[in-house]
Design a protein that fits this description.
Blueprint (H helix, E strand, L loop, with lengths): L4 H29 L59 E5 L4 E5 L6 E5 L4 E5 L5 E3 L10 E4 L5 E5 L5 E5 L4 E5 L3 E6 L6 E6 L6 E6 L7 E5 L7 E3 L7 E5 L11 E7 L8 E3 L2 E7 L5 E7 L8 E6 L10 E2 L9 E3 L4 E7 L18 E7 L4 E4 L9 E6 L5 E6 L5 E5 L1
Antiparallel strand pairs: 1-28, 2-3, 3-4, 4-5, 6-7, 7-8, 8-9, 10-11, 11-12, 12-13, 14-15, 15-16, 16-17, 18-19, 19-20, 20-21, 22-23, 23-24, 24-25, 26-27, 27-28
Length: 413
């Protein structure tokens, strides 16, 4: 009986499947099972004393790498990872003093910092290794603010009731100053201070200079009803005593004309600050001024600007550094380099009410004014809000008070 076409197709399909399986097995046996692992041969002897072989000529293509932080193992790799076998980055933040520190200031000899401890009412010095020494056995309780001498251990203290005391830590001389004097600032050589005398009558309000103990006071400028618009702030050359916001209106914008005041009625050029909240920070020589302002250009956050500030070129070469922080969170290393604490996650309009954001953790940035480059250099262990930043004498450490805990820390630069 002859096979039907349907039966022939079935037999052919079975044969084809069987044949395919057989061929597949044969191929597997020949090409895979025969490839058994063997020992890796040792490299041939090389006469180049162990040097790596030449890589040959390159293509000349430019290689782009992730910016690295000098001295940090594994920098430049994917964030949160480190090459296998390499050590993790060492901590760069160190606790210098576990007690409260207020009004931190560099010591005159450059070896360490000075501060007031509100817990026990005493003043201390701490060196860069964290060794703390007492400046005086005398106690001053409830000091709300300290204005330090620049080159000498002198200070003017302000108390909550408005009283003021001058104290010389070397001679241990103490003098009570008039309570209606305010806003003290030492000249660069500490020979005199400038301050405001705020009498009850507007006609009896003056900017003045005197010796630090209050003697030989001399009025410089009448303040009248504008005392609140004037801030005492010596520049390093002592040519400028302070600044005021009594300049010309700027067309209804947030821009401010800042006027600078000298000891002898000099007519210094003004600065047109491009926003509100002007806060200055003089360079070591006084030839440049760093300042922060906020406005629509920064979405209401403080922005750093810099310009020339010697009296003949005041305000020239103004530049926006595009760094969102306040100028008093920065410290000058020299005329062209700064280190700044920059708040993490600073929200829009933070410039309107700074006190709401003083405890935000800060990143540390290095700013190079010559290149115009601002670089984040902080490592993940820097989680502190930076207040009163100062540099160690050798410029290797950033010393600061934690704005939340009041403890003293250093950051290895």
């Amino acid at each position: 009986m002859s096979m039907t076409d349907r039966t022939k197709k079935f037999i052919f399909a079975v044969f084809f499947i069987t044949f395919s399986i057989g061929v597949g097995y044969l191929l597997f046996t020949l090409f895979f099972q025969a490839q058994t692992p063997s020992a890796i041969p040792a490299p041939a002897p090389n006469s180049s004393s162990g040097q790596l072989p030449s890589a040959g000529a390159g293509s000349g293509a430019k290689i782009t790498t992730t910016p690295t932080v000098p001295g940090i193992p594994g920098a430049g790799t994917i964030p949160g990872t480190a090459p296998t076998g390499l050590p993790q980055a060492a901590a760069r933040v160190h606790l210098l003093h576990d007690g409260l520190t207020q009004d931190l200031s560099p010591s005159p000899n450059g070896n360490g910092q000075r501060f007031y401890n509100p817990d026990d009412g005493r003043f201390y010095k701490v060196n860069n290794n964290g060794a703390v020494t007492l400046m005086s056995d005398k106690q001053f309780y409830n000091v709300s603010n300290v204005d330090w001498g620049n080159k000498t251990d002198q200070a003017i203290m302000r108390f909550p009731d408005g009283s003021k005391i001058y104290y010389n830590f070397t001679s241990q001389r103490q003098v009570r100053l008039p309570s209606h004097w305010s806003g003290f600032d030492f000249a660069s050589n500490d020979a005199v201070v400038a301050a405001k005398s705020i009498g009850l009558d507007p006609d009896n309000r003056f900017l003045f200079i005197s010796k630090p103990d209050g003697t030989e006071a001399k009025a410089i400028e009448p303040l009248g009803d504008n005392a609140d618009l004037m801030t005492v702030d010596w520049n390093p050359s002592s040519q400028i005593v302070g600044y005021s916001f009594t300049g010309s209106p700027q067309g209804g914008t947030l821009q401010q004309e800042v006027l600078f005041i000298g000891q002898n009625h000099e007519n210094f050029k003004s600065i047109i600050a491009p926003g509100a909240g002007f806060l200055p920070n003089w360079s070591p020589s006084g030839k440049h001024i760093l300042y922060s302002v906020w406005g629509p250009f920064s979405n209401g956050r403080p922005d750093l600007w810099v310009s020339e500030s010697d009296p003949a070129h005041m305000g020239a070469n103004r530049r926006n550094l595009q760094v969102k922080t306040w100028a008093d969170k920065c410290v000058w290393a020299n005329e062209t380099e700064l280190y700044c604490g920059v708040p993490q996650g600073l929200p829009a309009n933070a410039g309107l009410e700074r006190s709401d954001f003083t405890t935000l953790p800060d990143d540390v940035y290095k700013i190079d004014l010559q290149s115009g480059i601002s670089t984040k250099i902080s490592t993940p262990d820097q989680t502190h809000p930076i207040q009163n930043p100062v540099l160690s004498n050798d410029k290797t450490k950033l010393i600061f008070t934690d704005a939340q805990s009041g403890k003293l820390y250093s950051y290895d630069l």
